[in-house]
Specification:
54% helix; two-stranded antiparallel sheet; 2 strands; 175 residues; globular
Length: 175
């Protein structure tokens, strides 16, 4: 296997998510500790394939680290379950995955899903993934639905994760 800096960074960071989960919950529901390691690798390995200059693995790791520290503070105050921890981390890790070409099932042959129904948009192959900016939140939610909408080995509520991702939309819709 070829080792490169991104691969090593992703593996170490994802393992740290599992370690932090174990630090917060010990042996309580260890499936979620394994899960956060796995979703960390899944999300970051996909994001590493994007040519976005800002919404990259470093940005996602920073967002996830800050969000996890907020969770830890809330957990110390007595208000976070292992399941809630896993859902929030999934949303943090997937909040910008919609910038990556090829992550949604309808992506391919020069088009990408918009994240709304079966709509697609043609992309200019000479431009970066930044052209997915208007669609990235909906695409991120579609990615989550496609991966966790049914038949998952871990109890992940795709709708709840999508609600969290929707909260990252900017500017915030007027309604």
């Amino acid at each position: 296997m070829l080792y490169n800096f991104k691969y090593l960074t992703i593996n170490r960071f994802s393992k740290s998510l599992e370690d932090d989960y174990k630090g917060a919950f010990g042996a309580l529901e260890p499936i979620y500790g394994n899960y956060v390691n796995w979703i960390g690798r899944l999300a970051l390995e996909n994001i590493a394939n994007s040519d976005m200059l800002y919404h990259d693995i470093e940005h996602t790791m920073l967002v996830t680290t800050v969000g996890q520290q907020i969770l830890l503070g809330k957990h110390l105050d007595g208000g976070v379950s292992p399941r809630e921890w896993a859902h929030f981390l999934t949303a943090l890790l997937c909040h910008d995955i919609g910038y990556v070409r090829g992550v949604c099932r309808l992506d391919g042959n020069g088009v990408c899903a918009t994240g709304v129904g079966t709509e697609t948009v043609a992309l200019d192959p000479e431009k970066t993934d930044a052209q997915l900016t208007p669609y990235h939140v909906d695409r991120g939610k579609q990615f989550v639905q496609e991966r966790f909408g049914s038949n998952t080995l871990v109890d992940i509520d795709a709708e709840l994760v999508c609600e969290y991702i929707e909260m990252t939309r900017f500017p915030v819709p007027a309604d």
